[in-house]
Structures are given as C-alpha cells and as structure tokens.
Design a protein that fits this description.
Blueprint lengths: L4 E6 L7 H14 L3 E4 L5 H4 L10 E2 L27 E5 L2 E5 L2 H10 L4 E6 L1 H12 L4 E5 L15 H22 L1 E7 L6 H9 L4 E3 L7 H13 L5 E6 L25 H9 L6 E6 L11 H19 L5 E6 L2 E6 H5 L10 H8 L8
Parallel strand pairs: 1-2, 1-6, 6-7, 7-12, 8-10, 8-11, 9-10
Antiparallel strand pairs: 2-3, 4-5, 12-13
Helix pairs in contact: 1-9, 5-6, 6-11
This protein binds 6-O-phosphono-beta-D-fructofuranose.
6-O-phosphono-beta-D-fructofuranose binds next to loops.
Length: 366
C-alpha cells in the first residue's frame, strides 16, 4: 500500500533526543512525499480529536523542524498519564480510570493515518503492542534516559543524562573536598541503575547504590571511615532513586491514580542512616529533572537521527509491530513484543560493575 500520511507521537517522560528523532522522521518522510501528522501529548491527541494543548495535533512541515536538533524536550508534548486502557477521567468529583482504546483506534482511522510512529519507553511500547494487536500499523522508537528498554543496546537521552550527573559530581567533588564532607547525589533510575553506575565511573565516586545490588549500611560506613583513615576525609556517593537496602524496599511517595508510583528520598534515607555512624557532615543533593532537560549531547542527536530515519524506512518496508533498535553499533528492527518482555537492567556480574569494583567503588554489598 502506498503511504501518504503517517502520524508521530512521543509518550512517557521527556528525554533529550526526542526532537532529533522527530526532525529525522519529518525530513525522511517528506523526501518520500509523505505527510507527517504530529499527535499531541502522547495518545491524548488520538483519544480526543478536539483536545487542544499548546502543542496541538498538526501537520509538521520541514520548516517546523528547523533548529530543533539541538533542543531538549519534545515539540509534540508528552504525557505519562495517557494509557488508553487506563485513561484517567473525573467522575463525580473523583479521579478514576476507564478504557478508551476503541476511541483511539477509531480516531487513528478518522485521521487517515497509514502508519503511526510511537516514540516512547517500555510503557509506551506496551501500549503500542496493544494497538498492533487491534490492527494499527505501528513502528516503535525506544526512548528513555534510564536505558532500561530491552532489545536495544542503548537509547538516546541516556548519554545526556549521564553527562548531567557527571558534571554535578565534578562540582560536588570540589565542595566535598573543601569541607571534608560526605556528599550524596541522587540520580534517576527507577528500576535500572545505569545512570548511577555510569556517572559513578565517570565522576570518580566512591560508593554507588543501584536497585540491582541491594546495599547494607555497614559496608558504606566502613568505606567512608577507611577513606578518612587513609587521608581522604571526604567521600562521594551516587544513589539511584530506586536503590534499596537488603532488607527494605525503595522509598515511594503517595500513589497518584493513573501514574507510576513516584520514588522519593532514596539519598536522604542513606544520609540519615550514615550520619549517626560518622563524625563527618553528610549532605545530599537530588539532581531530579535536570537530567531530563537540556540540549542532547552529540551521541543522542546522532542516535535520535538514525532511529528517526530507520523508523521511516521500517514504515516504508511494512515492518509494523517492530521497534527500531541499536545492536552492535548497527540499526536494526526487533519485535515490539521483545522490548516489553523484560527490562534492561544492570548486570551485577557484568563488566561495568567489575570495572567499578576494581577501581574501588563500593556497592554497599560487601
Ligand atoms: O523514565 C525516566 C524517569 O526519569 C525515571 O527514572 C523516573 O522515576 C521517572 O522518569 C519520573 O518521571 P515523572 O515524574 O515524569 O513521572
């Protein structure tokens, strides 16, 4: 079937590199004479055709993508409260969830889409798979700063986030060393500790706590005390937001309907646990959403561009139900089903953890 009109949407948390993907899709599609319709705020623009946000469902022209390669965020807007099977609505003054998937499918056809490129993380890929099961022609593009989507070696946004965390660690080194303090930096990483691990390696941290390796407080105290005894009375600790003790769970804030449970206060928890055991000041900093914003680093701009081009080529080749992926530096496609089967987590026995341990980084487990 000849393609005339494709849709593109971004879902889940934003991530540096989304705009380079959109730009590449638009340029590659226009080169084929296709029209590109931007769907606003993830599936919101598909669920309600009268929905109007500042982004707005609209045809994206080549002119619209001039100058967006270097911009963080997404010109289409995004949302992590847009699962059509669990869509949040207000009923009798209370928020509840309903299934609006049939409306979304109907609107896909009303919009005259020949295919839809869905750019998102594991949540968005799960939704994409369900749409495929209902007959929609979807190509997925993996996105996450956490690098936790399976079936791809990496995702754009991750390198930018790690650079942000590394810059923060460089700054914390200066002040930690000046004051002889223990400085904790909490970084993102709900289930996967990739950002924490990479930042710890690049930012010369002494302790790294990640969800995949539960920690105990005693080894942390020991590490900090031995550094002090060896003439280094300051220490740098990276804590992934999903870090947990051997005995405990990650720390969550109150549940909000339709949203993923929010993690909250992982570094602060470590701070409070360490303080009574140390005759040192302990301070914690949460990097938070700074990691999600900002201009994408060159790797993420290039990967985003490659993914965007590959997604258009996948549509052209009729490879629906597949996600573009990076394997051994080469772009390929994989079934979306493979990407949602499991998460891509840090390998506790892997080379990076081994390298980190070998240069003296403690994970609090031994
Ligand atoms: O998916 C990336 C991520 O940054 C997670 O590490 C974090 O828990 C989550 O997004 C927070 O996103 P939000 O507050 O936008 O739901």
């Amino acid at each position: 079937m000849a393609i005339k009109r494709i849709g593109v949407m971004t879902g889940g948390g934003d991530c540096p590199g989304l705009n380079p993907v959109i730009r590449a899709i638009v340029l590659a599609a226009h080169a084929r004479g296709w029209e590109v319709l931007g769907i606003e705020d993830a599936t919101h623009g598909l669920i309600d055709l009268d929905y109007r946000s500042p982004h707005g469902n609209r045809t994206i022209t080549v002119r619209d993508v001039v100058g967006i390669l270097q911009r963080g965020g997404t010109i289409l807007g995004t949302s992590n409260k847009s699962d059509p099977w669990n869509f949040v609505v207000e009923k009798d003054g209370e928020e509840t969830t309903i299934d609006v998937s049939a409306t979304a499918v109907e609107n896909y056809h009303k919009l005259g889409l020949d295919a839809l490129i869905s750019i998102g993380g594991d949540g968005s890929m799960k939704i994409a798979q369900k749409f495929c099961d209902l007959g929609l022609k979807i190509v997925g593009v993996p996105k996450t700063i956490d690098q936790d989507v399976a079936a791809t070696d990496t995702t754009f946004g991750f390198q930018t986030a790690v650079q942000c965390a590394t810059d923060a660690l460089d700054r914390l080194h200066d002040t930690a060393e000046s004051h002889d303090r223990v400085m904790l930096l909490e970084v993102m990483g709900r289930d996967a500790g990739h950002i924490a691990l990479h930042a710890a390696l690049a930012g010369d941290a002494h302790i790294c706590l990640i969800p995949e390796i539960p920690y105990r407080v005693a080894p942390l105290v020991e590490k900090i005390k031995s550094r002090k005894a060896n003439g280094h009375p300051y220490s740098i600790v990276v804590v992934a937001e999903g870090a947990r003790t051997v005995a405990g769970e990650a720390t969550y804030a109150d549940k909000v309907i339709g949203e993923m449970p929010k993690l909250f206060g992982a570094a602060q928890k470590v701070c409070l646990a360490l303080e009574p055991h140390l005759k040192l000041d302990v301070r914690s900093t949460t990097l938070g959403y700074l990691q999600r914003g900002g201009s994408p680093v060159q790797f993420d701009r290039i990967l985003g561009t490659r993914y965007g081009v590959a997604a258009v080529e996948a549509v052209e080749a009729g490879k629906f139900g597949r996600m573009v992926s990076l394997r051994n530096h080469e772009i390929t496609t994989v079934p979306i089903a493979d990407a949602i089967e499991r998460q891509r987590l840090v390998e506790p026995q892997g080379q990076l953890v081994h390298a980190a341990r070998s240069v003296g980084i403690s994970f609090g487990d031994e």
